[in-house]
Write a structure and sequence with these properties.
Elements (H helix, E strand, L loop, with lengths): L7 E6 L4 H13 L2 E6 L8 H4 L21 E5 L3 H13 L7 E4 L9 H26 L2
Parallel strand pairs: 1-2, 3-4
Antiparallel strand pairs: 1-3
Length: 140
């Protein structure tokens, strides 16, 4: 019998709707991607270990991380091609639309999950006005 080798991992962060979490879990396991979950109680834990990776203690969280967390997907150990295929399939199936997305790196592996989510939120806030301006300029 042929063994099913995992092709990477994903952390489902702070998905409060159990049905949505189940759909995403099936989506990823069908693609041989290991699925880990984290909730609000994990915001102070380091991201790497939440994904089954070695990693140090989480960095302390600041007051900004007290903002209620948004759902997020954190990917690990996927090739660029596999990640692109997964993101395309998520878009096509209208799954996890609007949720934050990140890739585990040596730099963010030891970050507290809450700090990573806050950084992603800040980045999205900085990018959104630029994207809107580009879209507005394209039609002129």
């Amino acid at each position: 019998m042929k063994a099913r080798v995992q092709t990477g991992a994903v952390l489902l962060c702070c998905f409060e709707n159990p049905d949505e979490q189940d759909v995403l879990r099936r989506f990823f396991t069908q693609r041989r991607i290991a699925v880990y979950t984290a909730g609000s109680e994990d915001l102070g834990r380091a991201v790497g270990p939440l994904l089954g990776q070695p990693g140090g203690a989480a960095q302390p969280q600041d007051a900004a991380a007290a903002v209620p967390p948004e759902p997020a997907l954190v990917f690990s150990a996927l090739s660029d091609r596999s990640l692109e295929q997964v993101l395309t399939a998520l878009r096509e199936q209208q799954l996890a639309a609007g949720c934050l997305k990140a890739v585990l790196t040596p730099h963010n592996r030891g970050w507290a999950l809450g700090a990573l989510l806050e950084e992603l939120r800040r980045e999205r806030g900085a990018i959104a006005p630029k994207a809107e301006a580009e879209e507005g300029g394209a039609g002129a």
